[in-house]
Amino acid sequence: MSTFTLVILILALSSEAFSGIYLNGFLREKETRFPYKLLVIVSLALVNAAMAALGFFTGSYLNLLLGEFSYFISLGLLFVLGLKLIARSFKPKFREMTWELNQPKILLGFAVAVGINAFLLGLALPVFDPNFIALLFSFLLGFAVSVSLALIIGARSQRFLLASRIVFSGGLIIIGSAVYYILRNFNFI
User: Fold this and answer.
1) b/e for 100-136, b at 16 or more Cβ within 10 A?
2) Whose CA, among 20, 57, 71, 139, lies 20 to 30 Å from 27?
3) What's the pTM value of the predicted model, to 2 decimals?
4) Do 148 and 21 meet the contact criterion of CB atoms below 8 Å apart?
5) What is the spatial distance between Cα 24 and Cα 56, in angstroms, rounded to a whole number?
6) How do the pLDDT tens digits run along the chain, 189 residues long?
7) Alpha-carbon distance 79 to 91, whole Å?
8) Is the dihedral of CA 57, 58, 62, 65 positive or negative?
């Protein structure tokens, strides 16, 4: 798997964090200053990178145990992760809209909740043999950029339909990558 493909997968995964931050009205309050917004960016990037690293190490161990079956299990994980994001995009309201993310404890809870998907992606990635440093850096950078954009764009507008479409697109990208690797495995591509 190339670093470019890895970054695309991570940006697709970060669509959930983007929508949660973009729609959250508590972060648009005038009391929310730049240092706290920086804390939001750093905490989401660090927690998701840590969860992905934990998933990667777990996936590497499972890779050794499961052998050739781990490839198809990883593709299944990617497919389920994409379906999860697509199903989420059809919900009439995201829970993150009501989370008071201007409180550090709740922000940490949100970061861990989003990090579960990062763990699942990290669990699926060892079969593609990515560079671990590139993986970690990509998670840090991908989530930092996504959350930064959500804070900037969310300060100007708050459209549920846009957030929903972004999550839907992220799910399609992840499912598309799973389908691509299945087709490539059977030499259709």
Assistant:
1) ebbeeeebeebbbbbbebbbbbbbbbbbbebeeeebb
2) 139
3) 0.87
4) no
5) 30
6) 777 888 888 999 999 889 888 887 666 665 567 888 898 899 999 999 999 999 999 999 988 888 888 888 989 999 999 999 999 888 766 665 666 777 888 889 989 999 999 999 999 999 888 889 989 999 999 999 999 998 888 877 777 888 889 999 999 999 999 998 888 888 887
7) 19
8) positive
> Residue 126 gets which letter from DSSP?
G
* Six token digits for residue 29: 């309050």
State the Cα–Cα distance between residues 127 and 110, nearest whole angstrom: 29
The single-letter code of the amino acid at 5 is: T
Burial of 174 (0-12, 13-18, 19+ CB in 10 A): buried
On whether the CB atoms of residues 170 and 16 are closer than 8 A, the answer is yes
